[in-house]
Amino acid sequence: MTKNYVLGLLAVASLAACSKKDDNNTTPPPSNNSDTVYVRGKISASQTWSKNKVYKLRGYVYVDAPAVLTVEAGTQIISTRDSAGVLVVYKGAQINANGTADNPIVFTSGHTDKKPGDLGGIILVGSATGNGNHAVIEGGVDGDHKAFGGTNDADNSGTMQYVRIEYAGKAVSQDDEVNGLSLYTVGNKTTLHHIQVVNGLDDAFEFFGGTVNAKYLIAYNTADDDFDMDDAYKGMIQFAVSVKQPSFTDPKGASGDVSNNFEVDNTNPANKPITTTPTTFPVLSNFTAIGPNNATGTSAAYGYGARWRRGCQFILGNSIIMGSQKEAMRVDDNVTMGFYNDGTSGVKNSLLHSSSANVFSTANSGAAVLLTVDQLSALVTGRDATQVFLAANAGDIKLKDPFNNKTPDLAPQTGSPALAGAKFEGKLADAFFDKVAYRGAIDPANDWTKAKWVAWDRVVVTQ
């Protein structure tokens, strides 16, 4: 196979391919006469990556304004664990990664023995609003690409559709990581749909502020949180799946952090007060979140179905949470509980199950909780019309095969309460949301997770 190194212009004078100097050079468009294209450094002029080539990321690759990186349907982008390539599409630049249902774009490991962390991940950086919780971008990016945020909530970072991101995750240090897809203050003119993150070493999707909306997302067997939101993220998401592999987590040790299907914060109090505004407020509908359900070999680091904390606001509607190792719903502080108590936040018209003895838990540091477990339960099941299923009763939700981790079937069976009962009121009435009758991510008449672009039954996750 022919190989072509896409290096900076100054690399003509020096072939020290792995030097820091080369990494800071400008990357020209790839040659037309190569099968494998090695990419590193900066892309400052628009270029197209062809499905007829394989692109190998070496370290951090930065797409800088005004460049547009176009990726053809069917293109494969790989990385190896010695460099854990990270693609950063920075403010003012765009990515147009337009895969199709039959020809997805795949970011993956270049090894035969694929492992989480072989690929660093993808980072999109926009100019929408945040609240400054994170001062700089995580994950070891260089000094020219650390800043994020702005005032343009309609910012456009491009399009990603029918894209699969496999074996990603890069930890520089604890809490300084690259996720499968990291979204830093990305604006709502950006298009995201039909994206799967598979076997990631950290979070699948993390939203650091911004207003970007998304549909048809899958997080499959990632080690930390599947949907992590903070820094005043205010977007809308519909039709999303989270499936946890029982033995694969990101243990946090003494920090007390755990791996969850959802983790939603406003700020980290070590960075800014949790009452900082603007406030994290995602509006979410038609999620199906599957935990390990206390299967044999389940890691002790597994946590909650949904962990709402640190002053966030939220709406989760028409969704299913099943098999959480701890409670299906955890609210961690009185500020967050206050938003639930006054009706700002809600888990509405949903189905909740946990393998734990309790479906709900609350906690607050330094003072009595604003809402006891019984009080929270009364609000969720009464005012918000959500149904609760105790540990032994997961089968009553009647999904076809939700705990088959290799090939999960998340569609509702005949007689399932998920076949009907969805409501779109309040913020869920927004035109962004498709007003379907069913609850959960899967249309019983058309299971989109069975399409060719989706990958189940991947190599057993190992670190």
From TrEMBL:
Domain of life: Bacteria
Protein name: T9SS C-terminal target domain-containing protein
Organism annotation: Chitinophaga varians
Lineage: Bacteria, Pseudomonadati, Bacteroidota, Chitinophagia, Chitinophagales
